[in-house]
Amino acid sequence: MTVDARLASDEVGEAGTALDAGVGAAAAGATRGGRGHRLGRAAPWAVGAVVAALVVAGSALGLHLSNVHNGLIAASFTAVGVVVVSRRPGHGEGRLFLATGLAHAVMFFGRQYGAHLTDGGGTLPGATWVQWAGVWPLPLVLVLTGVTLLCFPDGRLPSPRWRPAVAAMVVAGGALSLTSALWPVEYADDSLSLHHPLDIGGYPTAQQLWNGPGRTAYLLFQLAWVVGVVVRLRRAHGDEARQLRWFAWAVAVGAGAMVLGLVLFRSPTLGVLAVPVIPLTAGLAIVKYRLYDIDLVIRKTLVVGAMAVLVTVGYVAVVLGVGRVLGVSAGPSPLLSLVATAMVAVAFEPARRRVQVAADRLVYGRRASPYEALARLSAQLSGDVPHVDLFSGLASTVAAGVGAAEVTLWVGADGELVAVASWPPPTVPGPPLSSTPRALASLGDGGRTHVRPIVHQGSLRGAITVTRAPGDVLAPSEDRLLADLAAQAGLVLDNVGLGVELQHRLHQISVQATELQAAAKRIVAAQYEARQRIERDLHDGAQQRLVTLALSLQAVADRAEAGGDADLAARVADARAQLIAALAELREMARGIHPAILTQEGLEAALGFLAERAPLPVRVDVDLDRRLAPDIEATAYFVVSEALTNAAKHSGASAIAVTATAMTSTSGTSTAMSTSGPGGGGGGRLVIEVSDDGRGGADGHWGSGLQGLVDRLAALDGRLTVHSPPGGGTRLEAEIPCG
Amino acid sequence: MRVMLADDAVLFREGMARILLEAGFDVAGQAGDGAQLLELVLAQPPAVAIIDLRMPPGHATEGIDVAVEIRRQAPDVGLLLLSQHVETHYAVRLMTEFDGGVGYLLKDRVSDLAAFAGDVRRVAAGDCVIDPELVARLVDRKRAGDPLAALTARERTVLALMAQGRSNRALSDELYLSAKTIEAHVRNIFTKLDLPPDAGDHRRVLAVLAFLRS
Predict the structure, then answer these.
(1) Please, are residues A675 and A689 in contact by the beta-carbon 8 Å criterion?
(2) Would the pTM of this model clear 0.90, i.e. be above it?
């Protein structure tokens, strides 16, 4: 609550600056929040008491028609303000109402006091000054009233962009009030009985200023709040829209009363008397906006008003027009009345229906035809729409189709129905609409909610509930449309169910894929370690033993030689030579399993060895600024090894170029960027390229060796591409993410 | 001639010590790793330290590391690196880092005692020794527009022996050719391959290796 109050005081702060500048200073001071709870609670009642005293005392001083509206505004705005602030403490709009009421009470009393004549025909003591105090604040009060209306219903300006406009209004209002306080500009055309208490020079200039920019400013003040309300009305939805519609309705009724009064009675009295409707309705909208369906009120008002006008105009037209044709005098004639009544009666129902349709369109906006509603639904169904959006789409389609105030879509079997979407959409996105499962029978709500079960393939899949205003029955065509939409909804829910199942499967598959990928990575790592271990075992075991054996054979040969057994010596020497050859083969094998130079010195040295040994000229370009992970280096090495072997065997090339380049995501060529493999990690990639100038068309030659490499690369999130157009050489490109 | 051995494979080390002894070498010390060898060498520097390239603790290039350290602390000790594999990468590194008196051979070579004893002596004398298998691999390497094709068979032999670290005198001894003939061959090779003029044995090995490798 404290937080609310503080927020509210911030909100009203910008309006408060306007108040401080003028007569509302006292009211503003009293109503501004943040000065403690006690003051905050007592203030509205204090303002109410002051206004009541001023209005009662003023009224006791007589009836002055030109001042009645001030009293009415003071009383109605203050009363509504007190109610709003006491129900919703800290509500900015309530405080603005209080300020507006108080300002008008001051003006009302000042003018009443000045206009009162005593029994002796004289004025009350200090009458000129008291009246003056009720006159000059008018421009500022107009600004205050405008701001109050601008800030409806939440006490905030429609947007921060309005601040400069409000500031300009306050400045203009202040200047006009100052002018009015110094010179009798307002006295000239107002029915004020007393003269201005001050008499200083420059009056003609002031009056000129007043007549020109002053009146324009008055007009702009009115325009500002009307524009503000219209902007807000267009933007608002949900509860705020309902509040604003109440307000707009009241303004329209007030304006209608004013026009009617001016036309019929040539007097603004009717309009003035209707003024309290605006604050009363506004207060109702703030405090109890959910109580009544404003749309229904507006529609009925429109229909009744339009029909009243039509009947009156028709009646008058018939009586006057037919009477003239028949030569009957314009006076009351039973016959003509009868004819007119009959004609009006005949025309009434068709006219009412048309007016009703027009009013509906005005209130609800253009309603989708049944065909459009179905077409829209099927468009949503065929589109790639997430199912949550599909649900809200369905709800809004139903709402557009049958013109409902509220539509809710329920999904589930009977007894397990859960609301999944509603129209109008909830203003605050967040928790589900209703978490408790409901039974189909419990969804109906008196006569206002129509329930349509959604049945597909014989089983209940959900329900649509449509809520309309009380007494607003579903037309047969709307009922049929609702039934059609419910049937379509069955299909939607079925599809969504399939979609959910599919998503579930896809999720499972992606989980499995991740696990497989991890497993493959582990296998590659394990394979790398195994190869390294075998190479090490060979190095420290078999190779050492065989070398030592060669030494022993040498010693034996020497002995035989020394013993004169040349034949044995030769045989042993031969055995040693064979052993040396075996050692060379074993060396090759060990290197094929895992090149020690790769572990010890890295990719560049290891690729250099491959190039030395290749049966074709090989150019190696390595651009690496660091050692890479062992399994990445090993994979790259074996890719090159396999590619060189294949090129030598099949390509008929005269030369081969090998490049190994480490690329970060920020560097590298754009073409290299675009071929980035999946799961690039930190963005770094090792790109290996082996290209020859051979005959190309090598797609068929790649055997199991390449498949093994593809698997290894895949396990490391890498990829392999082979470009081998016939006659165009072969280019093999491998990419491995390397952090 | 005093030699010291370092190898973590005890059987091989013992076998090598035995045949070196038979060939008249004084095996003054044996070590199982680089640190142990360094201690022995610094105590009584031998003419040559024969070092396994891959030793504990990391089984990577500990042999080269200890060789560098020996050269820094006892510059007169010849260094002969043995390995199960011979890599151009290491050969170039050894030729670059050491100014002569260094060798790099397959372990297999030890079993050919006569050749091996010669290699040890050449390292002791400050020459360079590069394994013939490595050199053969480099000479046989396929090149685009191969410049070696311009060489005669004899010149190729001379080139390979140069790459193995033979000096001109060693060449003339080994090929039974006069010093003058060898010099002519070497000059021809350098001209045909467009190598920088002969600047000492060790630099010559490096230049030839670099040429063969590129």
Answers:
(1) no
(2) no
